[in-house]
């Protein structure tokens, strides 16, 4: 059943994201071929693939930053060409933590910036906006740092603040492109735990792009392996039943994934 209404109404039963037979090439280089998958509401999806496997290109297509060549993408049941509710989607890029450390803003101010798209730069925040800002900061476990300068925080803490900034507008789908680049190992685990909690308790659908297949498989509900096309989409634990040979065939090199139980 599809309750589309000229691209304005949303089909609440539709997948949050549906990608169908997507091909993409830069000049003569085919980067994506026949990419097909969908992500259901409430999933924590991990998209993994080696360098150059097309992850960033795929995300840029999903965010409407690159024009479709072949195939189609639906967001909340609406073809991307007609999709207007971009406030339902938030994106945190790997570049977020290359933030200028000298930037004179507190955690509160950085998170508040996530609301300016909703209310405009020169409007004042009302009580509800302030509540949303504090709630987003609490959701990423940064309440003790509200008035600290962003430049004084560690890479992992800064990245949590950027997640809070993207959560404050209350998106339904949060897309993260390699958010743990530059975050030390111990904090990477904490970071993934925080994402898993946001997914379970706040019901936010997550699409996490990573080349770190070992760690993310402990947290994600859906694992997608991309190398030009989707070679695996399913339960992360079933992925480990595949032979090393099968995995390395699409991963491009031999790899030993490590599974942790949490
Ligand atoms: N703007 C561009 N023009 C030409 N080729 C590009 C462009 N962007 C990416 N490519 C090429 O397309 C292929 C896929 O790149 P993409 O960045 O999508 O992969 P990725 O999986 O995100 O890689 P990484 O993990 O290294 O970031 C690579 O071979 C890359 O060199």
Automatic annotation (TrEMBL):
Single GO MF annotation: ATP hydrolysis activity
Domain ABC transporter: 17-252
Top-rank lineage group of the source organism: Bacteria
PROSITE patterns the UniProt entry points to: ABC_TRANSPORTER_1, ABC_TRANSPORTER_2
Nucleotide-binding among keywords: yes
Family assignment from sequence similarity: Belongs to the ABC transporter superfamily.
The name this protein goes by in its record: Zinc transport system ATP-binding protein
């Amino acid at each position: 059943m599809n309750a589309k209404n000229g691209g304005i109404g949303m089909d609440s039963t539709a997948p949050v994201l549906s990608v169908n037979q997507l091909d993409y090439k830069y000049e003569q280089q085919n980067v994506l071929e026949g990419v097909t998958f969908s992500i259901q509401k409430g999933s924590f999806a991990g998209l993994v693939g080696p360098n150059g496997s097309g992850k960033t290109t795929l995300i840029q297509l999903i965010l409407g930053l690159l024009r479709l060549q072949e195939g189609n993408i639906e967001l909340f049941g609406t073809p991307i060409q007609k999709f207007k509710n971009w406030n339902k989607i938030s994106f945190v890029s790997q570049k977020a933590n290359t933030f200028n450390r000298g930037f004179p803003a507190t955690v509160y101010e950085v998170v508040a910036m996530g609301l300016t798209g909703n209310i405009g730069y020169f409007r004042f925040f009302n009580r509800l906006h302030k509540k949303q800002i504090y709630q987003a900061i609490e959701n990423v476990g940064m309440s003790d740092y509200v008035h600290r300068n962003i430049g004084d925080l560690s890479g992992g803490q800064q990245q949590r603040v950027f997640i809070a900034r993207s959560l404050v507008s209350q998106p339904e789908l949060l897309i993260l492109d390699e958010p743990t680049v530059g975050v030390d190992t111990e904090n990477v685990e904490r970071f993934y735990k925080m994402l898993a909690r946001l997914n379970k308790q706040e019901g936010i659908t997550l699409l996490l792009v990573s080349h770190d297949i070992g760690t993310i498989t402990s947290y994600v509900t859906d694992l997608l392996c991309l190398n030009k096309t989707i070679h695996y989409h399913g339960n992360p634990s079933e992925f480990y039943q595949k032979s090393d040979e099968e995995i390395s065939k699409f991963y491009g090199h031999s790899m030993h994934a490590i599974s942790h139980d949490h």
